[in-house]
Amino acid sequence: MALIEFRNVRKVFGPKVVYEDLNLDVHAGESLTIIGGSGMGKSVMLKMLVGLLRADGGTVRFDGQEIHQKTEHEFTPIRRRIGMLFQGAALFDSMSIHDNVAYGLREHFQFSEGEIRDRVADALESVGLPGTERQWPAELSGGQRKRAGLARALAIRPEVLLYDEPTTGLDPVYTERINQLITSTRERYRVTSIVVTHDMESAFQVSDRIAMIHKGFVIWTGTVAETRASEDRRVRDFIEGVAPETDDAATLLRYGG
């Protein structure tokens, strides 16, 4: 049985259809990367998994539990098992780096301040930011903020880590550092990873499998080697950066974030 299952999932925002019939399995311990054009709903999938959005039809299961209809209170045990690095890191500007990384620990657990301090220090050390606890988000570079966001996700010691466009806006050096962190984090903590990205070099580097979303459906899943060799025109065009022949920007935006 898969650790995470999306079955016949439908998601709409008013008249905007994001998913018609989403079907996808994620297996424990693997690194799965989700690719697809802008507006195809890649980030929406992650938000449904952590309860920030609800499916409008079908079933979402985590470790055998149906989670798509859980209340906010019922979702708390799930959130203790899933960490997420949001696009842009989503740090709180009014909090120090220590308090940002400690946020999930204070929100979902009952640790002493000493235990929190140790976990924060360990998480920051693991992403290469030791000694930054007293700094503020504004004092960090874009790449450092991404790493601080990853430290916040790691501090809860999750079983699953979700990465929403982790390399967007970063220069090639920081992109490579983040890719290496995704790989080393998976190996060190033995987490299941789901990465949403449009960066194919990153996808090829960090993935066991790649899934492509197109117009409300998963149209492709395969290993890195299988994806590189795919003869599906939609997959080939995306890898090669070729614009779709029939999809303009307005059509892409129809399918959500």
- Would you tell me which CATH topology of the largest domain applies? Rossmann fold
Spans of 5+ residues with little confidence (pLDDT < 50)?
A: 245-257
Number of domains: 2
- Shape category: globular
Q: Please, how many helices?
A: 10
Share of helix, binned? 25-40%
The Rg value, from CA coordinates, equals 18 Å
Order of helices and strands: EEEHEEHEHHHEHEHEEHHH
Q: End-to-end distance, in Å?
A: 29 Å
The largest pleated sheet is described as: 6 strands, mixed
Output the CATH homologous superfamily of the largest domain.
P-loop containing nucleotide triphosphate hydrolases
Describe this structure in words.
Strand 9 (209-214) and strand 10 (217-223) form a beta hairpin. Strands 6-7-8-3-9-10 form a six-stranded mixed beta sheet, with helices on both faces. 39% of the residues lie in helices and 24% in strands. It has 257 residues and is of the alpha/beta class. It has ten helices and ten strands. The relative contact order is 0.19. The chain is globular. The protein folds into two domains: 8-81 and 159-253, Rossmann fold (3-Layer(aba) Sandwich), CATH 3.40.50.300; 93-157, no CATH class.
